[in-house]
Design brief:
The chain has helices spanning about 35-50, 125, 130-145, 145-170, 175-215, 240-255, 255-260, 290-310, 325-335; strands spanning about 1-10, 15-20, 25-30, 70-75, 80-85, 95, 100, 115, 225-230, 275-280, 280, 315-320, 340-345, 360-365, 370. The chain has two domains: about 1-115 and about 315-373, 3-Layer(aba) Sandwich (Rossmann fold), CATH 3.40.50; about 120-310, RecF/RecN/SMC, N-terminal domain (Glutathione S-transferase Yfyf (Class Pi), Chain A, domain 2). It has nine helices and 15 strands. The longest helix has about 40 residues, at about 175-215.
Length: about 375
């Protein structure tokens, strides 16, 4: 899979730009603040319907415009797909596939698959559990787009259940338990589906993260990638939907008193953690800056390998990565990714890009993208 053409209209700093691309390596070069990351963000948005930089859509629309449009022409299995997403803040996004409207924007998920690494990914190691849960859920959606709806359903149920618990807390325990029982069952059903998917993803990632980290750090491992559930250590963490649903219901019942006292849901995938380690120590709080970068990169490279094994190599995007790495890590990373079908790199200066990835070159300045090689 590779992108043949990218178009942005009123997206971030771009009024209207079209970039022709080819398989292999492409480097977008320009000073900070000129729009390199905006190109990477636009590609990522088509693949995931979300930004790696902001949670809301409003910042994605150029100042003074009502909406933004991102277009990607994707070559996939000798077929060409044109994917278009229209972003209108405050309204549901609209999408088209091969110029035909689709019922829901999420129906274009899977047409383009990407793995994007950016400086923000240090949060995968140093940040809160929510950052690591988000990483897993984004991988799930790329593997199986139906998980976009699974996650949305779980979030909707969680919001409604929390509202009922909060109301009960405010009125000192006057909850309608029949209503709460209904939300408990839905939380268990959607939560079990999400949890099972995460466990499958972790099982696929674990050996690949260790392999990638070993290559990046020149034997600095081993690493650990373990899933820690709010269900407690006595619950076997296997991707069995029925078993997990029953376990969630049992734990919710056990914790009902505490939930009513605190007015919030204390059980479910929203409380879980992905625990990363290097050697015998947890990565968070112990890993050096270089180790943290290597582990975050290893997570993304492992994701790329997981998606490739599922069928179809995704586009790899390395946004402003090489300036943060020492020379040895730069060279090892370049050696790992140079042979992939399409690698898109952004950097402030061409000297930051290893020779193996200096294929096509584009200069980026003041909302303009010019191919120079």
């Amino acid at each position: 899979m590779h992108i043949r053409r990218l178009g942005l209209a009123d997206f971030r700093s771009y009024a209207d730009v079209t970039v022709e691309l080819e398989p292999g390596a492409a480097a977008f070069i320009g000073p900070n603040g000129q729009g390199k990351t905006n190109l990477a963000e636009g590609i990522g948005y088509v693949a995931t319907l979300g930004s790696h930089r902001v949670a809301a859509d409003a910042p994605l629309v150029r100042q003074g415009a009502e909406r933004a449009v991102v277009r990607c022409e994707v070559v996939k299995d000798d077929r060409v797909l044109l994917v278009e997403v229209e972003i209108t803040p405050g309204k549901a996004n609209r999408a088209r596939l091969n110029r035909g409207a689709v019922p829901r924007a999420r129906d274009v998920l899977g047409a383009l698959r990407t793995v994007l690494f950016a400086p923000e990914d240090l949060a995968l190691v140093k940040g809160d559990p929510a950052d690591r849960r988000g990483f897993l859920d984004a991988l799930l959606v790329q593997r199986q787009p139906r998980f976009h709806a699974v996650k949305a359903d779980y979030d909707r149920v969680l919001k409604q259940r929390n509202a009922l618990l909060k109301s009960s807390y405010a009125t000192r325990g006057s909850a309608d338990f029949r209503t709460l029982d209904v939300w408990d069952e839905q939380l268990a059903s959607h939560g079990a589906e999400l949890l099972a998917g995460r466990l499958e993803a972790v099982d696929a990632l674990r050996p690949l993260v260790d392999k990638a980290y070993d290559a990046l750090s020149d034997g600095g491992g081993p690493t650990g990638v373990e899933y820690r559930s709010s269900l407690g250590p006595e619950t076997p963490l296997v991707p069995d939907r029925k078993l997990l649903s029953a376990a969630i219901l049992a734990e919710v019942s056990r914790m009902r008193g505490a939930e009513l006292d605190r007015g919030v849901s204390l059980v479910g995938p929203h409380r879980d953690e992905l625990v990363l380690s290097i050697g015998d120590f947890p990565a968070k709080g112990y890993a050096s800056h270089g180790e943290s970068w290597s582990l975050a990169l290893a997570l993304r490279l492992a994701s790329h390998d997981v998606l490739t094994a599922d069928g179809g190599e995704p586009v790899l995007i390395l946004d402003d990565v090489f300036a943060e790495l020492d020379t040895s890590r730069r060279e090892r990373l370049a050696a790992l990714v140079a042979g992939r079908e399409q690698v898109i790199v952004t950097a402030a200066v061409i000297g930051d890009v290893p020779d193996q990835l200096q294929g096509a070159r584009y200069d980026v300045a003041a909302g303009e993208v010019t191919r120079v090689r």
